[in-house]
Amino acid sequence: MTTVGFLAFPRMEELDFVGPYEVFGMAEEVCPGSFRPRVLGADLSPLRAYHGLRILPETSLEEAPKLDLLVVPGGDGRKEASRDPVILDFLRRTARSGALVASVCTGAFVLAAAGLLEGKEATTHHHFYDELLGTFPGIRLVKRRWVRDGNVATAGGVTCGVDLSLALVAELADRETALRCAEALQYPWEG
């Protein structure tokens, strides 16, 4: 069983979070025992995402289980998340543990603030290329839907997170599970 953590923070972009969550949840449905999605927050307080969706973390970062994969969304809340020492320390510890750390859209800024993208290939939403490079010049920007460099993966805009998640399902489980998941979601993905 692969444990997948989904970092939740106030004013995150809903689809950055919910798209990958749905992919891994569906992967567990089509292949029982493959994935265990977990919603993580700095604490257990309910939070409101950018468009108003309320999220209730099931565990705090302090009490999070050992993760195989951590997914970090973007959105306007990434600015505060990028300055939160609890979040940044958790990202560093998770990466050091050998887990794969992934971001969607401007979640790349949070990974970069934790030092996880220095010298690595990475991407983000195309509207934020200049800001990402201007703020973190040590990143090797790649203009693709998603990119993986070592134990870090980044995806562009919101639906790119679904593409990356399906690719990770194929890698962490198998291609057949990813294809069955995409078919169940009616998402055009061929791997």
Describe this structure as you would to a colleague.
The protein has seven helices and eleven strands. Helix 6 (158-172) runs antiparallel to helix 7. Helices cover 38% and strands 21% of the residues. It has helices spanning 14-30, 78-81, 85-96, 107-113, 129-135, 158-172, 175-185; strands at residues 2-8, 35-41, 47-48, 54-55, 59-60, 69-72, 100-104, 121-122, 140-141, 146-149, 152-155.
- What is the H-and-E element order? EHEEEEEHHEHEHEEEHH
Oligomer: single chain
Strand-pairing-aware structural class: alpha/beta
Beta strand count: 11
Chain-averaged pLDDT: 96
Shape: globular
Distance between the termini: 22 Å
How would a textbook summarize the main sheet?
7 strands, mixed
Q: Count the helices. How many? A: 7
Proportion of residues in β-strands? 15-25%
Kindly report the spatial arrangement of strands forming the biggest sheet.
5-2-1-6-7-11-10
Helix content: 25-40%
Gyration radius from CA atoms, angstroms: 15 Å
Poorly predicted runs are none
